[in-house]
Design brief:
- Helices cover 33% and strands 24% of the residues.
- The chain is α/β, with parallel strands linked by helices and 415 residues long.
- A six-stranded mixed β-sheet has the order 10-9-11-14-12-13, sandwiched between helices.
- A hairpin with a 4-residue loop joins strand 3 (60-65) and strand 4 (70-76).
- The relative contact order is 0.12.
């Protein structure tokens, strides 16, 4: 045995064998198996979204069987696991588009998904890279072929335009509403509950989700506005649904909104941070480090919620080019009125309206503000945000700010 060890050729052979053995048991020696980490289904009246989250990117092929109202998706290198076996249990009976999902091993290298539909449906598939707490995702969106939307709710039509990369006609429309606002025609308010669907927004220590709280507040505010004879109100979303930032802006312009109010609940790494804040748009940089950080996190909503690459460049370039100083000036006036009323129900995080490059505030001719109602990351304020009383207080404060803004001569700066 000793002779073998001291023999140079034998020693090199043993080293090669040992190296191969080490490689075979190391992570490098084994290809990482593709696994589905989670399956999520988000039904809504506008569209249904299915998300397959995986540890590595998925390779897929899609086939549509229109006569049978089925969509077939084959994914390579994927095998049935616990998450996939329960996928059909997530399909809800109230889903207007999706009836059933069947999944099975088509061959040894391919897993087949069969989506049985309730009506003739268009599908859009795209993949997303990891961001925030999410890994790789394959997103399947199901839209109705025939639109049943009305003039008062153009969301589906706007989403179709967005997917076709064709929102420019809305974002660049320069036509104005006829008549003096509040007299010859009603004041039109667009409420924008932040986040939704795949994007939960901030989450408190007690699992309170921002997207749920702000939707409840927006609904309360809508009820107050609906009682005013000279006002109309619309919402960018009234369901647990994800709406791209560009589409939120486009919907406000489509409906000729006079004000745009985006409602959120702040979060910070330090749980002691507390208080309400109001923000307006800035095209010259943020007014503080905190405002810049908040804008960056809010602008990530599209990546977290999941959008295809279509339509994004209009928001990034065209709208910024058309922004008018007068609109931002009106936004600051409006924000100050709301901040004054918020100060009566909660401590203010900052005593002035801050500014940063918020994507959802970039309508060129609509005074727009973003309200951080409270810090959902703060235990005390998370508890308050969950109560009907505080939600109603917030809604009434925003409503009072809206009325005061117009009472004091607030204007709209149409292009």
């Amino acid at each position: 045995m000793l002779n073998l060890i001291y023999n140079p050729e034998c020693r090199r052979l043993l080293q090669a064998i040992a190296a191969c053995w080490m490689l075979s048991v190391s992570k490098i020696g084994f290809a990482t198996p593709t696994q589905i980490i989670a399956v999520r289904i988000w039904p809504s009246s506008t569209y249904t979204r299915i998300t397959l989250e995986s540890n590595i990117p998925l390779r897929y092929q899609q086939f549509s069987l229109f006569k049978l109202n089925k969509i077939v998706i084959d994914i390579e290198g994927l095998y049935l696991n616990k998450a996939l076996k329960k996928i059909n249990s997530q399909v809800q009976s109230v889903d207007p588009y999706l009836k059933q999902i069947r999944v099975g091993q088509f061959n040894k290298n391919t897993l087949r998904f069969i989506l049985k539909l309730k009506q003739n449906t268009n599908s859009q598939l795209f993949t997303l890279k990891p961001i925030a707490k999410f890994n790789y995702r394959l997103v399947i969106d199901l839209y109705p072929v025939t639109s049943t939307t009305t003039k008062d709710d153009p969301l589906l039509a706007l989403l179709k335009d967005y997917n076709r990369n064709n929102l420019e006609h809305i974002l660049l429309d320069k036509s104005s509403s006829v008549g003096k606002v509040g007299h010859d025609r009603p004041i039109i308010i667009m409420l924008d509950p932040g986040h939704g669907g795949e994007d939960p927004g901030a989450i408190g220590k007690n699992k309170t989700r921002e997207k749920d709280i702000v939707l409840q507040i927006a609904r309360r505010l809508r009820m107050l506005i609906q009682k005013e004879p000279n006002m109309q109100v619309h919402m960018t979303r009234n369901e647990d649904i994800f709406i791209p930032l560009t589409v939120r802006v486009a919907k406000a312009r489509k409906l000729r909104a006079d004000l745009f109010v985006s409602i959120h609940a702040d979060a910070f790494t330090n749980r002691s941070a507390k208080g309400s804040s109001v923000f307006a748009l800035s095209t010259k940089g943020a007014t503080s480090t905190a405002a810049r950080f908040l804008a960056q996190t809010q602008n990530e909503a599209d990546q977290i919620g999941g959008v295809s690459k279509s339509g994004d460049h209009y928001l990034d370039h065209t709208i910024i080019d058309l922004l008018q100083t007068a609109t931002i000036k009106d936004s600051l006036k409006f924000g100050k009125e709301v901040l004054n009323y918020m100060n009566k129900i909660n401590k203010l995080h900052k005593n002035c309206v801050e500014q940063a490059g918020f994507a959802m505030l970039k309508a060129p001719d609509i005074p727009s503000i973003l309200i951080e109602t409270a810090f959902i990351s703060n235990l005390e304020e998370e508890r308050k945000l969950r109560t009907n009383y505080f939600q109603q207080q917030i809604a009434e404060s925003i409503f009072a700010g809206i009325k005061t803004y117009f009472t004091n001569g607030g204007t709209v700066s149409r292009l």
